[in-house]
Design brief:
The protein is built from 16 helices and no strands. It has one domain: Orthogonal Bundle (ABC transporter involved in vitamin B12 uptake, BtuC), CATH 1.10.3470. The relative contact order is 0.19. It is mostly helical.
Length: 322
């Protein structure tokens, strides 16, 4: 009887054929849709960012409006590392991820106490502090002008970044896939089950012996590292890092992506990122001034009609999947 929960977790962790087909199609997208490689690269990066927020919001119940702090940390560290130390993309990405992970470990101490409102204010304040710090250290970060002249070396010493964005798109997709696999393994493990128990009822989780504070600190740190990887990809593939990466808009947009795609299942962030970026690109090309109004109208319709009716494909992966 004791082995039944573990057998259930193993069954849920198994990859389904639909997931394999989905990721093969994603990997083929920069080649099939070569003219849209740049937007595909953007979608892959924001999907990774949304994945990082989903780990703490959807699976643990930690609300954050300052998740851009870790995105910005990863972006600036990757850009500075490339410009002053080594232009190797993978090495720079690793340093950016580790730096954001360390920042997440420090910030995790601030989210263990207080209510959801307190966490919202603390996380937002952290992003604003880093934004102002990057602005003041203009001799290092470029200040309001941003950090320019970031020239990345070839990926694995062979694949140069091209103007069409195909190499950047494949690079971002592969990194997103690796991070997704790691996140999927985490949430479908006994550790992931304890995180969802904390989300559903923290007092009950404490009563049955789950170390709530340690679990919250761990998942917040992991989430920060993944967000830092997204920031590193953003700086590396665009060759630029600016104060915009710390802006409140970044945190708000990724929250909207989870509203669109659904929090609590890892494909929700990916689905939300795809829909959000495509809508943003299409609507801004039609009406540059009022595209946010139409996007807001879509969100209202989404809430009124229901996500399940508008996004039936999510059931492909939710049946025992991520």
């Amino acid at each position: 009887m004791m082995s039944q929960p573990f057998e259930l977790l193993r069954a849920q962790a198994r990859w389904k054929h639909s997931e394999t087909v989905f990721w093969l199609l994603v990997l083929a997208a920069p080649w099939v849709l070569s003219r849209h490689a740049l937007i595909i690269n953007e979608i892959a990066i924001v999907a990774l960012f949304a994945l990082s927020l989903d780990l703490i919001l959807g699976f643990t119940g930690i609300v954050s409006l300052g998740h851009a702090a870790f995105l910005g940390m990863g972006a600036y560290v990757a850009a500075l590392f490339c410009k002053f130390i080594n232009p190797d993309p993978l090495l720079g990405l690793a340093v950016a991820t580790v730096s954001a992970t360390f920042l997440g470990a420090v910030c995790s101490l601030t989210i263990l106490r207080g209510s959801d409102l307190t966490r919202l204010m603390v996380t937002l304040a952290m992003a604003l502090i880093l934004l102002e710090l990057a602005n003041k250290l203009d001799w290092l970060t470029g200040g309001a002008d941003g950090l320019q002249g970031v020239m990345m070396g070839p990926v694995l010493g062979r694949f140069e970044f091209d103007l069409q964005g195909q190499t950047a798109a494949w690079y971002s997709i592969v990194v997103t896939l690796v991070m997704f696999v790691l996140a999927r393994r985490l949430v479908k493990s006994p550790l992931g089950a304890t995180l969802m128990a904390i989300r559903d009822n923290r007092l009950r989780a404490m009563a049955i012996g789950i170390p709530v504070s340690a679990r919250l600190s761990l998942i917040y740190t992991v989430s920060a590292g993944i967000a830092g990887a997204a920031g590193g990809l953003l700086a590396q593939t665009t060759g630029f890092a600016s104060l915009d990466v710390f802006a409140f808009d970044r945190s708000a947009d990724v929250m909207l992506m989870l509203v669109i795609g659904g929090a609590g299942w890892l494909y929700g962030g990916i689905a939300g990122a795809v829909v959000f970026k495509i809508l943003q690109d299409v609507l801004s090309s039609i009406t540059q001034q009022y595209w946010m109004f139409w996007l807001g109208l879509f969100l209202v319709v989404l809430v009124m009609v229901g996500r399940d009716r508008l996004m039936r494909p999510q059931t492909w992966f939710k049946r025992g999947g991520a």
